[in-house]
Amino acid sequence: MDEQILEWLQEQQKNMLALLEDIVNIDSNSYDKAGVDRVGARLISFFDDHGIVHQTIPLDTHGDAIRAVVSGGESNQPIILCGHRDTVFPKDEVQRRPFSIADGKAFGPGVADMKPGLVINAFILAAFQKFGGHPNPLVGLFTGDEEIGSPASREVILAEAQKARLAFNSEPSRPSGNIVTRRKGGIFCHCEIIGVAAHSGGFFEDGRSAIEELARKVQALHALTDLDRGISINVGLVNGGQSVNTVAAEAHCGIDIRYREIPDRDAIMAKVRAICEATSVSGTTSSLEIKGEFYPLNPTEQSQELFGIYQSVAAADNVSVIGEHSGGCADSGFIAAAGAPVICGVGPVGGNYHRPDEWMQIDSLAKRARFIARTILTLAAQPTKTGL
Prior knowledge:
The chain is an alpha+beta fold. It has eleven helices and 18 strands. It is elongated.
């Protein structure tokens, strides 16, 4: 059975590329629920074609979660294949630059991050379904809001991870071919400042500038960055004011917080909150809201063991893989927080994520699917009570 699964996956390169083209050519910004759900509908069609049991978990504000299951032996500890259907690109991006191929690479919105990961997860499920399953159930979890911190699907992921033996998150492999074994945590915040409007010439003294208050906060927030500890604060969005000759009555900003170690989370968040809620310009008021949050991914003994198996599988195919640290966040942090060993970035090789020139290496589609599948097959011989 093992070789049948691997041989079948190797033969699916063309079919994988066709499915990838279909879902890349569907706009699916995180806030475009209809688009994200259209990607889900295409995957559901694939599951139906391959006899894979699936369910849709409705979510009101963002794309629904899809759970596809391949049963096997009597173990009730699932192995999770995780991935997100949303992208950072705006609606109509596909019309501007649809899926294309050149020089052994595929291009298009989400062609690396992370629609090919969805494709290989779907085909791995199909392979095990076709050839008899696995001692552990295989659960494919296809969510729709990762790019904004998974606010709607986080509880779905945590609930699944709490039951899991282990997990693979099929975010793109690095351009080097390496995978991700460590990620930073991230918090995305919105700070709102209210001032008092006034004519900036005739009645300047009556005004209370929200923009001045914001400028002071930006300086204080950026000063919290401590690169030696892996902590960074970036005010990446600012807006405010009504006109050049009006003292600004409102201003707001978006704040990105990154940290490496879980104990640092509360400490740095308390400092950010203190800056954002304090008043330095008399007559202004400020508030802070957390819009999205990721947990860090840090190696454990079990996740390192899982990576070692994956690394050996790749080496048997003459591919050297190293585990890298990424400053980017992912749903793998939620899985790790729930106690399940997880490795990330096991999707096809790609680069320039979130950019118009984002790319995926075409010949890595079937190859990376086989690496995950062989790792899963290797795990079949290992007990679930100890180690992995």
